[in-house]
Automatic annotation (TrEMBL):
Matching InterPro entries: AraC_XylS_family_regulators, ExsA-like_N, Homeodomain-like_sf, HTH_AraC
Name of this chain's protein: AraC family transcriptional regulator
Keywords for the protein's UniProt record, in alphabetical order: DNA-binding, Transcription, Transcription regulation
GO molecular function, one term: DNA-binding transcription factor activity
Residues annotated as domain HTH araC/xylS-type: 171-269
Gene source species: Hymenobacter fodinae
Amino acid sequence: MDNVFLQHNILYACGHQKIQSSEHYFPDHALGIMLSGESQYFSNEGSFVMKKGTICLMRRNELFKKLKKAGPNGEPPSLISLFLDQKTLRHYATENSIPKQRPYKGSAMLDLTDNGFLKGFFDSLLPYIDHPNRLNAKIAELKIGEAIELLLQTGDVYRQFLFDFQEPHKIDLETYMNHNFKYNIPLLSFAKLAGRSLSTFKRDFKKIFETTPEKWLQHKRLEQAHYLMSQGKMRPSEVYLEVGFENLSHFSFAFKNAFGLTPTELTEQHRASRY
């Protein structure tokens, strides 16, 4: 089990498994520090590794695969994150007369590990891990405001990063889905990221792919899994998470229905053909 609590947009999470894999869709900006262990983030942009002490700002409306690992001495992965939601940032922009910003075009993950002021800021949150009830709404509001101020003092790019309020525009759905089918997120999240309501997303999807999103996603993921295993690149226990399935048993069942043999049988068949 994970030790997780969220107090007014401030999250502390501590995992107890040696390796944990998950998918992430950030509807809000997230500012976090790795307290122990390691987190690896993978996206279409590339990869980013958070080790103990790493501070990172992650952009909203991004898709990531996340792999958390224990530290070198077996300490569980743990981190503190702040979520900077649009309502809070709009209010801040109004209160501080921040003008409309140009669309942000930079990296989705910014490394702030060398920022001593942010390090000191996160140190001030550590006592609340053992006393979360002391982190009331007023203190949390002050802490969120402090974090925003510290980011703005770091450089002009953070003003554009934080206060670009543009929502995803309607994009080429076929290209987008072929690039992102491996992310195991709700259809509603796919729809938002593609700049559509859920009903419009489903309607446009049916026109393009001539099937439902659910059927297409499963077929596409199974095809990719078949390719990765038949090429000898990955084992079934590795591939099911890579292509967006939640658990191995569901993946094995769906794979056999589609191809007539289990993932294990396919890899054994491939291995035998090599000798």
